[in-house]
Amino acid sequence: MPAKNSARKSKKTAGEKLREKEDPKIIAQKIRRIGEEIVGDINKHKDPEFVTQQRGRGNVEFDEKDKLLTLGDKTTTRNFLNIGHARKFMQTMIVSAKTHEYLEENKTAAIREIYYELKHTIGGSKENTFEEQTESDGVIVDLEHAVNSIREKLNLHANPKGTLYGDITLRDRKHNNDTFNAGKLGRGGWSIMSRVEPEEIEILKVDANYVLVIETEAMYERLVEEDFAKKNRAILVSTGGQAARGTRRLIHRLHMEAKLPVYMFTDGDPYGWYIYSVIKQGSMALAAHSDLLAVPGAKYIGMTLDDVETYELKNVTERMKEGDIKRAKEMLEYPWFQNSEWQRQLKKALSEKIRIEQQALANKSLSFVADEYLPKKIKAKDFLP
Amino acid sequence: MPAKNSARKSKKTAGEKLREKEDPKIIAQKIRRIGEEIVGDINKHKDPEFVTQQRGRGNVEFDEKDKLLTLGDKTTTRNFLNIGHARKFMQTMIVSAKTHEYLEENKTAAIREIYYELKHTIGGSKENTFEEQTESDGVIVDLEHAVNSIREKLNLHANPKGTLYGDITLRDRKHNNDTFNAGKLGRGGWSIMSRVEPEEIEILKVDANYVLVIETEAMYERLVEEDFAKKNRAILVSTGGQAARGTRRLIHRLHMEAKLPVYMFTDGDPYGWYIYSVIKQGSMALAAHSDLLAVPGAKYIGMTLDDVETYELKNVTERMKEGDIKRAKEMLEYPWFQNSEWQRQLKKALSEKIRIEQQALANKSLSFVADEYLPKKIKAKDFLP
């Protein structure tokens, strides 16, 4: 994958950056326009076609200026009269029509629901519209790209995961204007929704110095228990492993909209570092959506393999597994890991072949992470880029 | 495993039913007493021993009267001077001492944290206290049984998972007495903590007809979106698959303490039915803890394979996998599935070899589950036992 140094051109199908806020009516119109063009083609006895951005590594670029992953300008055209395209064309049409309906009727659906809702045997045939959810999922991604937005703005969503805690007041405009502070829900916190678009979920007030994003639910509970958020004026977000889209979107908004620094705290292993990199510059699979999902300004606070030495944690490390070794080798090559700090860290991992978990800090004491490890690093700005 | 028809005898080590509420000081004293007895043995030059309940299928019984799984009266004795027991004896002692410290100091820890906190190389040797977390986990279970309580009351916990939504007001006594209503947190809901013991988390008020426990987060989001809780005066709990202990404890309390009926809604497959059975009568692995975790009065609302016919959903079923077939065969034999309804359902699954997901109801329409499927079943009391 090439690392391009040029500023991004208007290479999106719709020719513009993705918008943080966009009226559902505008999105519905874009979908409608696609349909109208196809009807126009049919009326003109032309082969109807559907154009979307080409995905996959061959069209993914790392934007050195904006520091995020993005898609190149290659497009894919699907023709109804091409026998290899016809099935997918049909699927694209029914998903587009249903999504348009959701937007018009102010409904939302999980991507698994739209799959089930549209699955049926086509009249007069033995052909099902879909056999597997992967088919409808692929078509949804096509449509997101074709209208230059993200599925959440098409009223679609994946499963929720992740928790929010701290002195932040949110309002849900679609739920009686519920207004609540995520630091006043006991130690449980707020369960982050699958869709947290600004049109519906408003960030009313945040009183914090930074956002600390935490890989494991257990470490999140530790920090809540230690009253870390209050003592350090921090917002805590736990991702529970790889972050769900709703959680990525919320972190992105806390950074962009509420202007908070974002520090990421994961296990010290290639998988944790990869979770960080997805939060920071986006993922290859969703490169076109980085505008709304990535947090290029995020910093990495730990764990690092240097922590193992600094805090004498050798005894509570584990051997890296094959998958981690493979991942570390791949990461060494990614353009966004081409800086001396990460190159050194990844090479260290590959040479020592050990990993360290966040919770291993309990080896010092339960409160060590909250009283020493994190505050010290934040004070010294001891981050990886 | 035998299905005993006798009322439970006082066969627990401590000779009594588990208590919903118990002063941490009492638990600390019980641990202290174990330590004192061992010190006494040492002073008398006797071989110190640690006694706990025997676990595993050989000692699990189904209590026909209370309708829950329970442990028989077999015990296991571990002697320090037995070379095969010495390591585990040492582990039991350090976990007991540390747990006692947590209780005295009002600290809580995840079971992974206590593992890391106690892991070290024993002075003058190359022996580590633990090599794997499974070792400390096993010792924790021994200790829970020895003091006749659950780990949550020993200030230990596993990872949190699960979400709560509806007109229920909770208070967290250990967090500024935060008082909040889980129906006023937008559509996200409250992220259920890993420990929800009544000593800390109080159920102040519930305004509901029943609790609906939902297997998938996605179906939970659907029901929230449809305003199901308000329209039906229901409390919604999503488990996100197999329920975490904190979530089981909360459902148990809603049933026992707030006297609410509990209806369970899972995918229509042996795995979903198994999740239900663990909620209802407890699990074999934690048979001694059913008093505080099980909900013997729970009912099963769906999905069933009859739903497939009633609602013409054949087209959105899937083939059962090998694991499901194996599980269904095992479940046929369990004493608590010895009733005509479940025998019929399990045999139907084994003969048709299909499964149906909750979300497949979207095939009717997105709101079908909320407007028709659930209300109709609840009105007709169309449950499986």
Mean pLDDT across every amino acid position of chain A: 94
Highest CATH level, the class of the largest domain in chain A: Alpha Beta
The rounded distance between the terminal residues' Cα atoms of chain A is 21 Å
| Total separate domains of chain A | 2
| CATH 2nd-level architecture of the largest domain in chain A | 3-Layer(aba) Sandwich
Number of strands of chain A: 18
**Proportion in helices of chain A:** 25-40%
Largest sheet properties of chain A: 6 strands, mixed
Compute the gyration radius of chain A: what is it?
A: 23 Å
What is the strand arrangement across the widest sheet of chain A? 11-8-14-13-15-16
Please state the overall shape of chain A, judged from the principal axes of the Cα atoms: globular
Largest interface: A-B, 54 and 54 residues
Q: Please state roughly what percent of the residues of chain A sit in beta strands, choosing from under 5%, 5-15%, 15-25%, 25-35%, 35-45% or over 45%.
A: 15-25%
Q: Which structural class fits the helix and strand makeup of chain A?
A: alpha/beta
The low-confidence parts of chain A are 5-15
InterPro entries (chains A, B): Spo11/TopoVI_A, Spo11/TopoVI_A_N, Spo11/TopoVI_A_sf, TopoVI_A, TOPRIM_Topo6A/Spo11, WH-like_DNA-bd_sf
Catalytic activity (chains A, B): ATP-dependent breakage, passage and rejoining of double-stranded DNA
Function (chains A, B): Relaxes both positive and negative superturns and exhibits a strong decatenase activity.
EC number (chains A, B): 5.6.2.2
